[in-house]
UniProtKB/TrEMBL annotation:
Keywords: Metal-binding, Zinc, Zinc-finger. Residues 519-528 have a biased composition (Basic and acidic residues). Residues 26-40 have a biased composition (Polar residues). Residues 1-79, 222-291, 501-528 are annotated as: Disordered. It comes from Colletotrichum costaricense. Signal peptide: none annotated. It comes from the Eukaryota. GO terms for molecular function: zinc ion binding. This is SWIM zinc finger protein. Residues 44-58, 65-78, 227-243 have a biased composition (Acidic residues). Residues 135-175 form the SWIM-type domain.
Length: 528
């Protein structure tokens, strides 16, 4: 066909890409493609520069970075400081010239990668991703063959030089999820192995965080050795077949598919959208087409096809629920609390091959670290940013904080594993009671320190929920200074004219109250 001919009907599909072309549908197809002469230079040298997508109201979609500067040097005159694709800032001054150049190139033109799944086996974390061909990255314990993170790409296998772009991309994404104590004004110090020295070593960082919680943030599945038949070759067709045999969809993927579809198809909140789809999601082995139900078909496709999910995700607006950072942090806390509840009720132990020995118990200390870290991230997202929060963002931040506070106050009980060899009476109360550790033992401004700094209109919709929590504090017992701060916050919300009509688009944000007739004189006395 000549160049003057009209384009074929499928030509425009090239514009609908995450980068410059749609990624392969499966890892097996990618593997077969790699046998041809397609190179990564072909992947990046298309004439189309992958401009930003335009959404239906004329604005730029969240599928593209806000600007080129998001992943370029913070200061063009200072080549030792760079901003990564995840918007973390790194110092490169300790690296060699070649390593510094490698990092700058990787962050300025990041690879178009899609995480497929991750796993832990034999004290090695493995992350499977797809570019034009599958890439596997392994992060091992100090005693494993992968004490230094390694990628399966040819560049890494043939040389012992600086980390490749795949490794730099993954480690940056990993740090973005796991680093709780991060000040955006203070650049991280990049090491020669491709990760910041602030996290220690990547294996210990993931172990403390736990792989399944990390996978939710990275939007990939966790597979166990049994689901892959203990295959060492994770780049093979057999690995794909094993993956396709998994029957139960990832609950986090179900939630996010629901969030995306509700934003496109409905004006209702994700929690109210199509309960028939999410109460009993289809197994991943089912054919996705559901006759006379387009929404149901798309929902199944989002669960079954990783590339389609990430493409759909790239088209969502930054204001959609699936991209709401506060909502995502609230979901992380929900995940952590479910694990804590299970820890105290499950009598079976996690086999060491599935991470039990490497990752340790999901106990009160582990949960408290996550919850405190999330609150710190909320604070950072509110107060250390280039622009003020929009009203919708302020409300989402307040909703998350109130939800976390309510969930912790509800857990004024002991969490001890049935398999523990230590007598419950011998365990310190702070080590087995989440409420006592975070609220009841001493006043550390838990949640209130951040919530009180938001404008009153942000927390006003949750006034009744806060009153319920204050009631519960009177039963549980809390430091007198903490209760007084709580009362002051509620009084300020009342003066601002808060309606008290709680917005319940996040679990736990609602309230049993239907009015304000209850007495506001609540005791702050401890009750054991």
């Amino acid at each position: 066909m000549s160049s003057s001919s009209s384009p074929t009907p499928v030509a425009k599909f090239r514009e609908l890409s995450l980068g410059r072309r749609m990624p392969p549908t499966t890892r097996a197809q990618a593997h077969r493609q790699s046998l041809s002469d397609i190179t990564t230079s072909d992947y990046y040298n298309d004439e189309d520069d992958g401009g930003g997508y335009i959404d239906d109201d004329g604005g730029s979609s969240s599928s593209e970075p806000e600007s080129d500067s998001d992943s370029s040097l913070v200061d063009d005159d200072d080549h030792s400081i760079i901003r990564s694709p995840s918007k973390l800032v790194y110092k490169l001054d300790t690296l060699s010239h070649d390593a510094r150049l490698r990092v700058r190139e990787a962050f300025k033109d990041p690879p178009r990668l899609s995480l497929q799944y991750c796993r832990l086996r034999d004290d090695v974390y493995a992350f499977q991703m797809t570019e034009l061909v599958p890439r596997s990255i392994r992060i091992g314990s100090p005693d494993s063959p992968f004490a230094t993170p390694r990628c399966s790409c040819r560049e890494q296998q043939q040389t012992a030089g600086p980390p490749c772009k795949h490794l730099l991309w993954l480690l940056d994404q990993l740090v973005k999820q796991t680093l709780y104590d991060y000040d955006p004004a203070s650049p991280l110090t990049m090491t020669a192995d491709g990760y910041p020295e602030e996290i220690g070593d990547p294996f210990s960082d993931i172990s403390a965080f736990h792989l399944d919680v990390l996978a939710d943030g990275l939007r990939c599945d966790v597979v166990t050795p049994g689901s892959e038949e203990d295959s060492e070759n994770t780049d093979s067709d057999e690995a794909e077949e094993d993956e396709n045999q998994r029957q139960h969809p990832n609950p986090h993927r179900v939630d996010e598919a629901r969030e995306m579809l509700s934003a496109v198809m409905s004006s209702s909140s994700p929690e109210d959208y199509r309960p028939d789809l999410c109460s009993n999601p289809p197994s991943t082995g089912k054919k996705p087409v559901k006759r006379r139900d387009l929404e149901g078909t798309i929902f199944r496709m989002l669960l079954a096809n990783n590339d389609f999910f990430h493409y759909f995700l790239s088209q969502m607006r930054s204001t959609d629920p699936v991209n709401d950072p506060f909502r995502k942090l609230s979901q992380r806390v929900d995940r952590v609390l479910r694990e804590l509840d299970s820890y105290a009720t499950t009598s079976t132990t996690i086999p060491s091959s599935e991470g039990g020995s490497a990752e340790g118990p999901r106990d009160v200390a582990w949960a408290a670290r996550h919850i405190s870290g999330v609150i710190g991230l909320v604070r950072t997202s509110i107060f250390k940013r280039d622009r003020p929060l929009e009203p919708q963002e302020r409300t989402s931040a307040a909703r998350t904080l109130v939800h976390i506070l309510a969930a912790v106050v509800e857990r004024n009980r002991d969490f001890v594993s049935p398999t523990s060899t230590t007598r419950p009476a011998a365990i310190a109360r702070r080590d087995k009671n989440l409420f006592l550790r975070l609220v009841g033992d001493r006043d550390e401004d838990f949640v209130l320190g951040v919530l009180s700094l938001l404008p009153p209109d942000a927390a006003a919709p949750f006034l009744h929920s806060l009153e319920d929590i204050l009631d519960q504090l009177g039963v549980n017992g809390a430091p007198a200074t903490y209760v007084e701060k709580f009362r002051s916050l509620i009084a300020r919300l009342r003066r601002s004219g808060g309606s008290g009509l709680a917005i319940t688009s996040s679990p736990g944000a609602g309230s049993k109250r239907h009015g304000q007739s209850q007495s506001h004189d609540r005791g702050s006395k401890r009750m054991r």
